[in-house]
């Protein structure tokens, strides 16, 4: 167990000597974002694993589809089980052009047992503004199966949800969020005063002029220089590769279900003494039977109770953690106690309760 904790210490060493991170990895330009698309469709060609008669809307959808194709049919005459109603979702990336293809996810909405091997019929995908941006169609891949008989069944993975790689064709383009603008906004993934200030300083040093100003901890405003007018793409490309070392708050994350502990590089503790030990109490009942010997002329059988009681308390030394100890010092000191990750969770909670842990404690 000591070896495991030591490995964690190596992984969580301070990042003072680490390389800085590109701006494009910690921030994004305002308006340059993905958009969610959703649509309702039908999967046909199923081998009897589609929606049952108690699910009404797939049948109604199929009647409407056939009527649009010029086929008139009575709803009461349809009893097929090779059709399943599905919800189709996709993500439209920024700057997607007409003719580009995107992946789609297909999920059953009714009581179909499997949509594996089915084909999604042409389904419009709409955005939040109720406009159609893509059309999906193709064979559904689930990487799963489900078979059942009267006395047994077998299933692998999830047969009622699948994917169609490159199954949607983009029909409508999103407006260009960068065209014709003289100023841009850079939004940080995690708002932080220090990180925003470092980004603005790095950009201004790059161009030698006050191009960037901090609006708030999560936003940096950029003024496009004169030499980059009508060359917004080149301007963005020149600054998003700049490297900045982001500043992160001191935080300790604990997951009591899995015993996972993650500590940031800025975690510090005040002077505190820690001792940890476990008290183990084992009680074992072993009844013994006393009975007359063979061929005896008399006597009675007696049950004699016997109890084994064992008390064991682990001896632990009192370890002093000095003030200002870093994450490496904390891990080394706790290794001296020989604690397990689950015991370490209890120790960190107690240290935080004492006011000696200078970090936010998050319990998942």
Describe it.
α1 packs antiparallel against α6. β15 and β16 form a beta hairpin. By secondary structure, this protein is of the alpha+beta class. It has helices spanning 2-11, 23-26, 57-68, 193-207, 232-240, 327-337, 341-353, and strands spanning 21-22, 27-29, 35-44, 84-92, 101-108, 119-126, 132-139, 145-148, 153-156, 161-170, 183-188, 212-216, 219-223, 243-244, 251-255, 260-263, 268-269, 272-274, 279-285, 288-290, 302-304, 307-313, 319-321, 357-358, 360-363. It has three domains: 20-31 and 177-244, Gyrase A, domain 2; 35-144 and 154-170, no CATH class; 251-289 and 302-363, no CATH class. The radius of gyration is 33 Å and the shape is flat.
Question: Which term fits the overall shape?
Answer: flat
How would you state the average pLDDT, rounded?
80
- What's the alpha carbon Rg, rounded to whole Å? 33 Å
Q: What would you call the structural class?
A: alpha+beta
The number of domains: 3
* First and last CA, distance: 23 Å
Order of strands across the biggest sheet? 3-4-5-10-7-6
Estimate the helix proportion, in percent: 10-25%
Low-confidence stretches: 1-18
Report the count of strand segments.
Answer: 25
Number of helices: 7
Mind describing the biggest β-sheet?
6 strands, antiparallel, barrel
- Beta-strand content bin: 25-35%
What order do the helices and strands come in, and which of them pair?
Blueprint: H1 2-11, E1 21-22, H2 23-26, E2 27-29, E3 35-44, H3 57-68, E4 84-92, E5 101-108, E6 119-126, E7 132-139, E8 145-148, E9 153-156, E10 161-170, E11 183-188, H4 193-207, E12 212-216, E13 219-223, H5 232-240, E14 243-244, E15 251-255, E16 260-263, E17 268-269, E18 272-274, E19 279-285, E20 288-290, E21 302-304, E22 307-313, E23 319-321, H6 327-337, H7 341-353, E24 357-358, E25 360-363
Parallel strand pairs: 15-25
Antiparallel strand pairs: 1-14, 2-11, 3-4, 3-6, 4-5, 5-10, 6-7, 7-10, 8-9, 11-13, 12-13, 15-16, 17-24, 18-23, 19-22, 20-21
Helix pairs in contact: 1-6
């Amino acid at each position: 167990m000591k070896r495991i904790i030591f490995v964690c210490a190596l992984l969580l060493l301070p990042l003072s000597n680490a390389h800085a991170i590109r701006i494009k990895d910690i921030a994004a330009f305002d308006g340059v974002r993905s958009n969610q698309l959703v649509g309702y469709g039908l999967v046909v060609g199923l081998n009897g694993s589609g929606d049952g008669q108690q699910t009404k809307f797939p049948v109604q959808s199929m009647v409407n589809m056939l009527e649009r194709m010029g086929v008139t049919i009575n709803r009461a005459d349809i009893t097929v089980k090779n059709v399943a109603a599905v919800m189709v979702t996709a993500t439209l990336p920024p700057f997607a052009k007409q003719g580009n293809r995107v992946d789609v996810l297909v999920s059953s909405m009714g009581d179909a047992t499997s949509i594996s091997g089915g084909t999604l019929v042409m389904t419009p995908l709409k955005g939040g503004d109720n406009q159609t941006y893509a059309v999906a169609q193709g064979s559904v891949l689930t990487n799963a199966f489900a078979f059942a008989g009267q006395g047994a069944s077998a299933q692998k993975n999830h047969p009622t949800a699948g994917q169609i790689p490159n199954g949607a064709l983009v029909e409508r383009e999103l407006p260009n969020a960068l065209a014709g603008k003289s100023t841009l906004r850079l939004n940080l993934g995690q708002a932080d005063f220090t990180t925003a200030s470092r980004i603005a300083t790095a950009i201004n040093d790059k161009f030698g002029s006050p191009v960037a100003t901090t609006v708030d901890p999560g936003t940096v405003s950029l003024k496009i220089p004169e030499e980059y007018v009508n060359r917004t793409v080149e301007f963005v490309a020149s600054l998003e590769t700049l490297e900045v070392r982001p500043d992160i708050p001191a935080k300790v994350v604990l997951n009591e279900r899995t015993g996972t502990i993650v500590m940031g590089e800025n975690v510090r503790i005040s002077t505190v003494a820690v001792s940890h030990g476990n008290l183990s109490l084992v009680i074992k009942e072993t009844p013994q039977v006393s009975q007359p010997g063979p061929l005896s002329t008399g006597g009675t059988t007696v049950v004699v109770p016997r109890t084994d009681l064992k008390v064991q308390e682990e001896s632990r030394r009192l370890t002093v953690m000095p003030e200002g100890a870093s994450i490496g010092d904390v891990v080394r000191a706790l290794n001296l106690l020989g604690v397990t990750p689950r015991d370490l969770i209890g120790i960190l909670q107690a240290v935080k309760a004492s006011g000696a842990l200078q970090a936010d404690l998050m319990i998942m």
